[in-house]
Amino acid sequence: MAARNFASMAIRNRLYCKSLSSQSFLRRCLSSSSESNAVSSVGKLGTSQEEPKIWEDPWRHALGPPPPPEEYTTEFEESSAEWKFVERLFPHDVIPEPPKHESYPTPSGWRPPRDPAPNLPYFIRRLRNHMLPLFLESRRDQLNLETMDYDYVELVKLKNVQGDVFACERDLRAYLESKVGHSIATHVNELQGAIRVKGVERADVERFLFEQGF
Amino acid sequence: MLSRQLLFACRGVQRCCGRPISSPSSVATFRKCYVSSNAGADSPSSTTPEPVFAGRNLWRADTLTSFQEKPQAWLSTLEDKHDRKIGLLDLHPDVFRAPPRLDIVHRNIVWQQNYRNVQFTKTLTRAEMPGGGKKPWPGKRMGRSKAGSIRAPYFRGGGIAHGVRGPRTWFYMLPDALRLKGLCTSLTIKHNQDDLVIVDSFDRLPSPDAQLLHDLADHRNWGYSVLFIDVPDRACENLALACADIPSFNIMPTYGLNCYSMHKYQTLVMTHEALNYLEERILFHLHRADTLQNKFRYKDMKEKLLNEGEGEDDPVHAPFV
């Protein structure tokens, strides 16, 4: 009995495998799938024609149809409460005003211009980034015959001088000569309102300007 | 009574005119100063515009310096030939009292004249000329001068030795800082020499008659050549028709303003709206966070330049360049 059952099982298996591998089986699969597609395109209903046959999908027959996929709602809600975190990361398009500090000078040494302006025959306007208009210029000096290299002179250029530029130059020279100890060379560009100083550091001229209140 | 008149006058001007100049003005107020300018003022329907005597809010004007005067300009109207002043405007000193840098204006004008030059001509050298490979006659016993090629420069019909060599361009871009300073200096010169006229609106011109415009210009002592500046690049009908008959009167939008034109035309006539727009744009760039010393790179402008003529294809007319 058991042997006969086993033999019939084996034959049945062999036949099943053969049917699986045969071309006709494939054709039947494709035709069944096309039929099912045709059916589904016409009317989406879970008919018995749509469901695959037992031998086409035995797992489905054993375990049942798979659960439907989880449905997520596509509604969304716009919230602008978090926009401020994005906005503060934007680069500035216009240079902002400097913040108000409790005491000056700030740790970097910056001071705002004195309000009202000092009562002098000249005025030195700040740059657009609220800094003093001090620049370094490197000019070629004479040829050094020992090293056969050109010596370079570093000049401090003070721009944006409005009013009497010569008066500013006089005051600047007097202050710097007393501070530095040696004589100083200056050049005044009246049309552009600029003074070039040789023999000082930029920090000395900055101290002069802060003391004057510009 | 007088104070109430001033109060009603304030309504017609910008919303923030009541704020003092020395208050710390943030970036947010910058746009408000210049954007909400003529929203309610001077609509074409009103016959008599309200007198504008209240001060304009000048964004980040330096109040500490006493060496830069605060310029003012009359606001007039084109309604009739008699010059009727309807207001007095405060102008921004950074734009209209800039230091007189004539060297920068010169550089701007030279740049405008030269940067568009393209040379298309080319002369051929002795190597590019046809023929001339063979020595025409032997060097000795001919009694003629030595010659190596019939296309040498000393030959009739020969190549040119140091000639014009091919397409060449004088293109270069001035840095933004210089162009801004040039504009500010030119506007300063125009205003200081009484060649700047500010008008409420161009659509108040009553008729497209060219003779009317001539009389108007004579009455107000404008120069021979007048440049009308408005914000949109579509001109008002009456003004456009009148200027079409007068060759020396021309209209330009604000984006076309340049040093060369400002010095070419004797008088500059600007609308109130154009003045606000110009001040806002110039001040923005004077205070912008980007550097003003920018190198012109073709790759930054390439897409914009190549797409310039997009949408301008016409089936009949040739493109206007």
From TrEMBL, chain A:
Pfam families, per the entry: Img2
Chief place of localization: mitochondrion
Lineage of the organism: Eukaryota, Metazoa, Ecdysozoa, Nematoda, Chromadorea
Ribosomal protein as UniProt keyword: yes
GO aspect biological process, one term: translation
Species, as recorded: Plectus sambesii
Keyword line: Mitochondrion, Ribonucleoprotein, Ribosomal protein
GO cellular component, one term: mitochondrial large ribosomal subunit
Compartments where found: Mitochondrion
Name by which UniProt lists this protein: Large ribosomal subunit protein mL49
Residues annotated as transmembrane: none
Family, per entry: Belongs to the mitochondrion-specific ribosomal protein mL49 family.
GO MF annotation list: structural constituent of ribosome
From TrEMBL, chain B:
SUPFAM superfamilies cross-referenced by the UniProt entry: Ribosomal protein L4 (SSF52166)
Subcellular location: Mitochondrion
GO MF assignments: structural constituent of ribosome
Cell inner membrane is among the record's keywords: no
Entry-linked InterPro entries: Ribosomal_uL4, Ribosomal_uL4-like, Ribosomal_uL4_dom_sf
Pfam families: Ribosomal_L4
Name of the protein described by the UniProt record: Large ribosomal subunit protein uL4m
Native species: Plectus sambesii
